[in-house]
Amino acid sequence: MLNIELPPNDYYDGIRCKGKINMLSKWEQSKKKSNYHFDNFKNDSQVDKVIKLGKIIADYSEDVKHAVETAKPAKWGDLDEINSEEHLISKDYKITHLSRELTINTQKISDLFGLKNCTGHIYVQMPGNVWNLHLDSLINLAPEEPWNIMRVQISLTDWEQGHFCNYGNYNHQQWRAGDVTTFDWQNLPHSTANAGHNPNVTLQLTGIITEKTTDFLNRLKRFGDHQLTLKDNAWF
């Protein structure tokens, strides 16, 4: 048997984190707050999954164009909710591009969900961007009732080969523009990457569930699709 003596872990952490050797411990701390199994070879369909909520149909071409034109590079250190979740990587590493300017369509979608204290961002993940594995930290939105905090993704572009989105051990792919999804943000580690040729554009909404939210989700589940128009009754 060949025995190779490797340097201690902090040697590698120091290289990856440019001297910030406490990164791994923060990842381990976030894992302790999760009930996920963290078994790389276990596939639990009840846990390793994205939750599909329905579809909001619209022409998103102008929304995508605006997002790509206005999005700015985003680094770990730019996103307040994950300042304490630096995982084996520098805070200066570019993970995606971010547009905080909602268009008419994306604002209408935000209004449909009716989330309290809602924040809406459009993420434009350019080819080469990698948002490495992490756990979200949203509990400050409602520390007494974290189960009422919801994070929703609305795809604004179709999936293409080279676009990656992992939830635990589940690889989400082949989505279409308008697909609406959510996930167990408290427990499920996730990551995204773009190894393709075109931007992957997603509207993300985060806020506290209200009666309006529940009503919209129930109707979306019942009808499957919602046509985003100026008409009051857009269900079919």
Plain-language structure description:
- By secondary structure, the protein is an alpha+beta fold.
- It has one domain: Jelly Rolls.
- It has 5 helices and 12 strands.
- Strand 7 and strand 8 form a beta hairpin.
- The longest helix is centred in the C-terminal third of the chain and has 13 residues.
- The radius of gyration is 19 Å and the shape is globular.
- About 11% of the residues have low confidence.
User: Which term fits the overall shape?
Assistant: globular
Query: What percent of the residues sit in helical stretches (DSSP H or I)?
Result: 10-25%
Number of helices: 5
Category from helices, strands and their pairing: alpha+beta
Task: Quote the CATH topology.
Answer: Jelly Rolls
First-residue to last-residue Cα separation: 67 Å
Low-confidence stretches: 6-23, 80-86
In CATH terms, what is the architecture? Sandwich
Overall pLDDT confidence: 85
Strand content: 25-35%
User: Strand arrangement, largest sheet?
Assistant: 2-3-4-11-6-9-1-12
Give the C-alpha Rg. Answer: 19 Å
Name of the level-1 CATH class: Mainly Beta
Main sheet: strands, sense, barrel: 8 strands, mixed
Number of strands: 12
Characteristic key phrases:
236 residues; alpha+beta; four-stranded antiparallel β-sheet; 5 helices
Q: What order do the helices and strands come in, and which of them pair?
A:
Blueprint: H1 9-16, H2 23-32, E1 51-57, H3 61-70, E2 72-75, E3 94-99, H4 104-113, E4 116-125, E5 130-134, E6 149-155, E7 163-167, E8 170-172, E9 179-182, E10 190-194, E11 200-208, H5 211-223, E12 225-227
Parallel strand pairs: 1-12
Antiparallel strand pairs: 1-9, 2-3, 3-4, 4-11, 5-10, 6-9, 6-11, 7-8, 7-10
